[in-house]
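Retro notes, structure queue

What went well: the backlog is down to a handful. What didn't: a couple of records were mislabeled last round, so from now on we paste the full input next to the output in the thread. Example, using Methyltransferase domain-containing protein from Desulfomarina profundi:
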Amino acid sequence: MITEYLQFIARTFRIYDGVIPSIEKVLSKTGSDSIVDLCSGASGPWSHLLRHTDRIDVVLTDKYPNLASFERISADSGGRISFSRDSVDATDVPEKYDGMRTIFTGLHHFHPEPARKILQDAAEKGRAIGIFEFTEHSLPAILSALLGIPLMVLLFTPFITPFKLSRLFWTYIIPVTPLLIMWDGVISDLRTYSVAELRDLVSPIKTENYSWEIGKQKSGVLGINITYLIGCPDKQA
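Corresponding output:
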């Protein structure tokens, strides 16, 4: 329920559209057109984001892959989105998955040590990585989750695909879903790494010829703050 709602919101409000130029810049630098999306959940935002670029192909992965969702998204992508049926651990990604790694709205699920391992694994294997979070550890974000999420769930649930009667039941008859998604939003905001905390995560990673960029940018029709971390191998002379 939660992942389907997040996917709908990301697509409807174009939450991550603004990060595509940064991703394309990294791909140009590394000479790749491939994305390995980690922690994809129900597929993440890529089914929408690919409409804004002609050059990128994506492989969806997850430790617990949602194969039904992956198959549906892949079939609708015109061959641009594929997926792994295997469990893929973001802290130790097999070498066969070549390309820039991305995680959308996912790093906050990891405590600092495994989060650092995700970043270190990318650096040590010479892979670029992009972390993007629209959640934010701030009072306005937390208040927005508390007050805004239940209303948005009530408004948008009939439009979420695939349509499910059970989703309507748990939203309008017994309103468990709005409360669950609100709670998840608040916890996600509280757990989201700040720019300073992301810098602390990468500071012990001493891989040579590898650079990090960390910051915030506005994105989407609502101008939401996206916290980002991008790691990329340096060009060799």
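Agreed that this is the format going forward. Reviewer comment attached to the example: Residues 139-187 form one domain.
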